[in-house]
Design the sequence.
């Protein structure tokens, strides 16, 4: 399966201690939902 370019960045930030809320934002149609689906 194709991995989005920010897959490793997001995965490492989600594995870090939770000191604050994490928000994934960006323009429409850039694959945000697909990226989150791949992580979880």
Sequence:
């Amino acid at each position: 399966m194709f991995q989005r370019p920010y897959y490793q960045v997001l995965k490492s930030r989600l594995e870090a201690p939770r000191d604050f809320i994490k928000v994934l934002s960006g323009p429409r149609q850039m694959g945000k939902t697909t990226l989150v689906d791949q992580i979880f």
The first helix runs from residue 7 to 15. The chain has a mean pLDDT of 84.
